[in-house]
Design brief:
This protein has about 180 residues and is of the alpha/beta class. Helix content is about 40%, strand content about 20%. The protein has six helices and seven strands. The protein has a seven-stranded mixed beta sheet with strand order 3-2-1-4-5-6-7. Helix 4 links the parallel strand 4 and strand 5. It binds nicotinamide-adenine-dinucleotide (NAD). Nicotinamide-adenine-dinucleotide binds next to helix 1 and helix 4.
Length: about 180
């Protein structure tokens, strides 16, 4: 599965690690290019520690890193089937990002938000296709915390929550 992550902060890079560990091809974008660099260097350090502690093999570390690419613009998400937004907690800024994102992605692309406090229905209502929008709320640190809240909005397509719930189980969450 091709997955896009918007925001390479605490949550975004953690979610990218989870998806890449579970075999997804992941593109990570951040408005601050330096942050993507910092986050990927941090991820390499985290994975090296896991190898040292024999929690993962060095081959697995190589596989995880090779599954992650840096996106330099939202256009790079054009082939993604799922995008998870994890940027600053601000409704106007998130909405602006979703509006641009929808001009680049396919009609079937699912768009999720990791927001902690903004109403999923109010965020989704601003989308051109609100039925593709859903809350996918990871906890910090995302690679370690097993709980993920799957939050459909009043406008989310009826089968989408189950689809995301099953995907989270594939990503070794919600078990
Ligand atoms: N930190 C937590 O414990 C936690 C837990 C669950 C959910 N969340 C939610 O996850 C989201 C991200 O939180 P975080 O703690 O990772 O934040 P963070 O500050 O660590 O990272 C946010 C990143 O978003 C980037 N960004 C800001 N505006 C952008 C834009 N327009 N386009 C692209 N990138 C942009 C910033 O450069 C930054 O790197 C928030 O919605 C927050 O509520 C946070």
């Amino acid at each position: 599965m091709n997955v896009g992550i918007i925001g390479a902060g605490t949550m975004g890079i953690g979610i990218a690690q989870v998806a890449a560990t579970n075999g997804c091809k992941v593109w990570v974008y951040d408005a601050n290019p330096k942050q993507v660099e910092t986050a990927t260097v941090g991820l390499e350090k985290t994975l090296t520690k896991l190898v040292d502690k024999q929690k993962i093999s060095s081959e697995k570390m190589g596989e995880i890193l090779s599954n992650i690419s840096i996106a330099t613009e939202l256009k790079d998400f054009k082939d993604c089937e799922l995008i998870i937004e994890a940027i600053i907690e601000n409704k106007e800024i998130k909405t602006k990002v979703f509006t641009e994102l929808e001009t680049h992605v396919s009609e079937n692309c699912i768009i999720g938000s990791n927001t902690s406090s903004i109403s999923i229905t109010s965020l989704g209502a601003e989308l051109r296709k609100p039925e593709r929008f859903i809350g996918i709320h990871f906890f910090n640190p995302a690679p370690l915390m097993p709980l993920v809240e799957v939050i459909p909005s009043l406008l989310t397509e009826k089968t989408l929550a189950e689809k995301i719930y099953n995907l989270m189980k594939d990503w070794e969450k919600c078990l």
